[in-house]
Design goal:
Elements: E1 2-6, H1 10-21, E2 25-29, H2 32-35, H3 42-46, E3 51-53, E4 59-60, E5 63-64, H4 75-82, E6 87-90, E7 100-102, H5 107-128, E8 137-141, H6 145-156, E9 160-164, H7 168-176, E10 180-182, H8 187-191, E11 196-199, H9 208-213, E12 219-222, H10 232-237, E13 241-244, H11 248-252, H12 254-271
Parallel strand pairs: 1-2, 1-3, 3-6, 6-7, 8-9, 8-11, 9-10, 11-12, 12-13
Antiparallel strand pairs: 4-5
């Protein structure tokens, strides 16, 4: 059975490669500018495919996310051209249909991407700090998937880690893993001595008061999805260094992130009866 991999960044090249290694016949669309090859129209590329793999994110600016594509394809048009008989696997689409699966919501992928994001964020911090991670003060806002991985990575390198979390259960888990844990109403104590602050909370947590507690030596790394958790205008006024670090899996480790997508979608294909 033929699979069409359409659009996306370098991650999708790895997805296509791994599908082929599993015995699937693959058609690749959207990489003409990168590979220096002419491409068929989108409709021809996906026509009669048993499944169409669309990128993560599925769309940007109303178009199919395809930064290496010679042509622009409207997102709605792309979904329509995939046809009712194909299984559509798309990352971050709100289309509700029996033949459409949003693989970005799969826990397997969420966990793998969280681990890659945490590693990438730590790499950014290491490049920004004027000192080693060992002995540094790391403050992590939020203790979900990314926050918990990041806290453990920082601690394993010898950082003194403070986790700030709303839920008492999250704070208890952090404390059980050897972290200092605080509610947000006490965050200023940890922020005042931080070398690096990692935010994973997608709602405002670093307001004027919290930002004023951050020392001049610290940088803040924003990992939360938009609108994020930082009052950016206030951060500029107070000269707090903020590093926007969104979409790290595809930017930092596209091969690993592509493997994570492939490992998520191959079981879905098999469950739907789409086999090599």
């Amino acid at each position: 059975m033929r699979i069409a991999v359409a659009g996306g960044d370098l991650r999708m090249l790895t997805v296509c490669k791994l599908l082929a290694e599993h015995g699937f016949e693959c058609t690749l669309f959207g990489f003409g500018n990168l590979l220096g090859a002419s491409e068929p129209e989108f409709g021809a590329a996906v026509n009669e495919a048993a499944a169409v793999i669309l990128p993560l994110p599925f769309s940007k600016g109303g178009n199919l996310y395809a930064p290496f594509c010679e042509k622009t394809v409207a997102a709605e048009e792309a979904l329509a051209l995939c046809g009712n008989n194909s299984l559509i696997l798309a990352g971050g689409t709100d289309k509700e249909a029996s033949n459409t699966v949003d693989y970005s919501r799969c826990e397997t992928l969420l966990l793998k991407n969280a681990f890659i994001t945490a590693e990438a964020a730590l790499s950014i911090a290491m490049n920004e700090m004027k000192r080693t991670v060992f002995g540094s003060q790391a403050v992590i806002l939020g203790y979900g998937r990314i926050g918990s991985f990041l806290a453990k990575m920082c601690r394993s390198l010898g950082a003194r880690v403070s986790v700030v979390a709303r839920k008492s259960e999250a704070r208890a888990l952090a404390e059980a893993s050897g972290m200092n844990a605080l509610p947000f109403c006490e965050a200023e104590k940890a922020l005042s001595t931080a070398d690096t602050v990692f935010n994973t909370v997608p709602s405002l947590v670093l307001d004027r008061r919290a930002l004023s507690a951050i020392g001049k030596q610290a940088c803040v790394i924003e990992l939360a999805s938009l609108p994020g958790g930082i009052d950016r205008e206030e951060a500029r006024r107070q000269h707090v260094k903020v590093i926007e670090a969104l979409g790290l899996p595809g930017k930092y480790a596209p091969a690993s992130a592509g493997s994570a997508i492939a490992e998520t979608i191959i079981p879905i294909l098999l469950e739907r009866g789409i086999t090599p």
